[in-house]
Every structure is written in structure tokens, then in C-alpha cells.
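#lab-general

N.A. 3:47 PM
ok so I finally got the sequence cleaned up, no stray characters, all 617 residues accounted for. can someone with queue access submit it? mine expired

B.Y. 3:52 PM
send it over

N.A. 3:53 PM
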Amino acid sequence: MKNLNYGVIGNCRSAALISERGSIEWLCLPQFDSSSVFASLLDTEKGGSFQIVPTKLKQVKQSYIDRTNILETRFECEDGVFVVKDFMPRYRNSDNGGYYIPPDIVRYFSLVEGQPEFVIKYDPRLEYAKHETQNFVEDGCYEGVKETCYIKSQTLKGTYDSLYLYSSFDYQAILESEPIKLTKDEYCLLSYNQKLLPQDTRRSKLKLERTKVYWLNWAERTTSYKLYNDEIMRSALTLKMLSFDKSGAILAAITTSLPETIGEERNWDYRFCWIRDASMVVKIMTSLGHYRLANRYLKFIINILPDKDEKMQIMYGINGEKNLKEQELEHFAGYEGSVPVRIGNAAYKQKQNDIYGILLDVIYQQLEIYDISLEHSEELWTIVRNIIKVVENNWKKPDRGIWEIRNENKHFTFSKVLCWAAVDRAVKIATLLRRGMYIEQWTRLRDKIHKDIYKKAWSEKKQAFTQAYGTDDLDASVLLMESYGFINATDQKYVSTVIAIQGDLEKNGLMFRYRNQDDFGMPKSAFTICSFWLTNALFKIGRKKEAIDKFHKLMSYSNHLGLFSEDLDFETKRMLGNFPQAYSHLALIETAINVSESQLSDEEMLKDYIHEKKGLS
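B.Y. 4:20 PM
back already:
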């Protein structure tokens, strides 16, 4: 059994997963949703990887350079010590004021002591390893003019693709996996594109320092809190890497088909922009002071909804693609044998009414911050009015819900609450913009939805708001009723709902999304964000000591770098599902902020955390 002990590096164009032993095991180029270059994550035999294997290894340690997305893997060997600094370049381009974000990975080998020996196992498998990839050295000479040498990799069948590896190491030693002795700093640069300028160790070091400065400056602009700043920062840096610079889209995760339960078929491609997930990320990142990310996301929304009758999908490709046809890669064995391995996601066809409220919540937040001076405010106002038309015509209808049930429509409570939230935020936006003719009309609609939910979603038997109208099944998403302003935390019906949901859905300190059977049977793993939601809800209803204890325990289930996936195993606490998961990290930040900003009269409830931090400093 293995855990998802990976670090992630990225530059808002693509990202890679690097194992705790320094092996690149997932990378898609030239962008997040491209076909894979390395995919041993999904098939150890066929997928391909980029390994560094010391001859006399004693131990490996891995960490990020503080407040950056530069990953350091320290190899301590009998014959010496060296550190590999992995990153994808991202820094200000002085020529045009934009950012240099090439589809590149730099692996900078920093010698610490001795002369450590290792082999490089360089094994790219382009185009999801559907066909053989050929690797060879190009001699770098054309019509007598010497150019930079490199290893070129290319497909021999199927879709043509190619890749370039530049290095200060001997290329034949890399291709033949021959021993290499490190006597000074060296580099490897992996690029989707052929380089036009000569590459050397000095240039790679310069890229490293420039990228480090970029991330340090970005981190410095992040709001600080009384507590949990390290955890908030790592999650914020991860969420930033999940943003796609070109379009403003935000990904749910960088991987596909990591299973929710080992050996089962709940394996999905998450390399897309869900309106729900992305909007939640934008809201939390705005609270951390990152307004540019929010502004670019709103431009993405404007671009995918160009016409007034454009129907909003629940999700889009990162370039705004609307058709996300789902396919299976049958030649891949899957993560620990979990098949199918899917690319694309058929959920894009689903109807989920909650997306409107979550999006309008973000639009309201941005208009409130910027007043009416926000760029594109008129276009956003048009979107607001069009969304309310959709909500008015659809809020009474069943949908597939937040969990994307594939074979059944229901009157999901969360969807209804977020329809209410959509109209509530529209009323607030109309008030901000002084559009008086809409306020009265929308207020009546808001009150109508509110009464409907109170009447039909409440179960006297469960003493709780339930998953859907006419059922006694409970659902963790209902915990968000208070977060979106539908009900007060002090309302006895909310308090009772929180207690009922905890009693029904909690197991071994972790949370099910729901327990009732869906189209794939009974869920078997804990959905990480739901455990954070419960923690938040308990904190808000006054059970603060319990909530804080749960929060600290939950944070201990991250991997060695503080990263979370989508799911956790109830028994072993190993991480499952796609990774790193935006949902999990935004919920961690939200919970940390709520606890940190609360007016605690003493430090008793936080003494373990504070003591631990003092011990580490």
C-alpha cells in the first residue's frame, strides 16, 4: 500500500508530481490537460518516469523552499550529499511585463558534499504511452554550425509528439542509465519546445533564483493570521498552481483517475474547471488578498458566456472547451490496479443548479470590493440578470446535485439552498448598483425559495434538513446552509442538523458525503472537504474545543509536504482520489481562518498547536 507522498511543482501552465524519492511520475505537456509525458502514477510499467537513483543511498528528505513552490529532494548517500531542486519556471518577463511560463521543468542538482554517484532513469512515454517513444541524441550541428545538443524523444506511431531534454550531464550516460558522479552543480531541463538559446548550468541557476523571487513576492502579498499561517500558505500556493494563466480557469486537480476507493471504478478526470470548485477557490483566495486571480477568473466566465442565451455548463475545459467527451485508456493498468483510467469527463452534460448561487456569491464579493469600478462590471451585471432568469425557471426542477449522481435527478436540498443564494446575492448586487426595479421582484423570489426549503427539506424524524426533498437521507453539503447565509448558526434547526449529520455520516473521525446508495453502490471513502465542513460547522455552533481537536487531527492526515487529495481511507487514513485537490485545500484555509479569527479568551484550546509551533521555531 502506498500513500500519495508526492510533491507538486507548477507554473500555472502545467504541473508535475514528484515522488518522495525524487521521481517525476506525472506530467502533462504543454499544459495541464495535454496528454501525459510521464504517467507511472497510473501504470508503473507503461507510464514512464524520470528517476534519480543513487548508488549508495542512506536516506531521502523532501521539503519545499519556504513560501515557494520549489521542491527540494535531499539525497544523503555514503559517498556524499546532493539536493535536487525541482521547479517549473515562472517569473516576470522584463520585455513585455507579462510572465515567462514555459512548458519546462528544471532539475537543478546542487552538490552539498562528497562525490555522490547515481544513475538517471529517463523514460518518457508520450501521448499517454499509447505507442512506443523513441529517445536519441541530436548532435546539434547543422550546415557546419554547432548548436546545443539535447536528447529528443518522439512518438513513432499515432499522434506525433516530441520532447527535449537539455543537460550538463553526458547524454549517453542518461540514455544508458550509466553511473554519474556529481562533482559540481549540474542541471537537467525538460522542455516541450526546442530551445533557441544555449542552455547551461548558470542559466538554470538564474531561472531558479528568478522563480524563487516570484513565489516569495507572491507569498508576501498573502494575508497573515494569528494562527496556521504555514498551513494556509502551503494550501494557497497549491491553489495558485491550479490556476491556468492563459484563460483564468482554475482546475479541480492536476490528475486523472486516482480512485476514490482502491480497485473500484470511481475514477475521474479532474483536469477541468468546475464552476463550483473554481468559484469557491476564487472566494477564498480573494480573502487572502489575491484579487488578480479573481479578476482573471471573472474574465474567463465572461468569455465562456458571450451571449445572453448561452446556457451555463457545470464545468469547462481550461481553455473554455464545452465538449469534454469521456474516453477510457484501456492499455493503462490504473493506480494500484484501479480501472478504468479515464480522460475527459461526461459530467459536463449534467444539470446542477447549485452552480448559480456559488458563482453569484463570488461576483457579489468582487463587486462589493471594487464597488462599480470593477472592469467588465456591465458584462457581469448582464450575467447576473441572465442567471436569475435561469434560476427562476429551474429552481423547482430536480437536478444531479453537487456530487454528480449520474443516474438520478432529485430535489437536492443543497441545490435549492444555492438557488436561494443566487437570488439573495442578486438582490445585494442590484442594491449595490442601484438597480431598484429588480430588487422587489427578486426579493419575492428569494423569499419563495426560502419558504419552500423550510417546508420540504426538513425531516421531523431526523430533526435535520435532509439530502433531498421527501427523504430521510443526510448529506454533508447541507452543512453549508449557514456558510451561504441561509440560516444562522444559532438557529436550533441548524444546530440539530449539524448534530444529526455528524451522528449519521461520521466514521472514525472522518466524514462520508452521504451513505445512501448511488449509481456506483455505497461510498466507501471519506471525502476530505466534508470533514473540514463538519469542523467548521461544529465551531460555529459553539462546540469549539471539539472542532479544533478535529481540525488538528485532520491536518495530520496530509502527506509529508502538507498536501491533500480528494479522499481519505476511514481505517488507514491514506489519501485517495485526485491530487492535489482544490476542494480540500480551500476548505483547510477557510477553517483555519475561522478558527484563527475567532475571539478566543484564552489559548487553552490551542495549546497543543501553539506548543508544537514554539518547539519547531
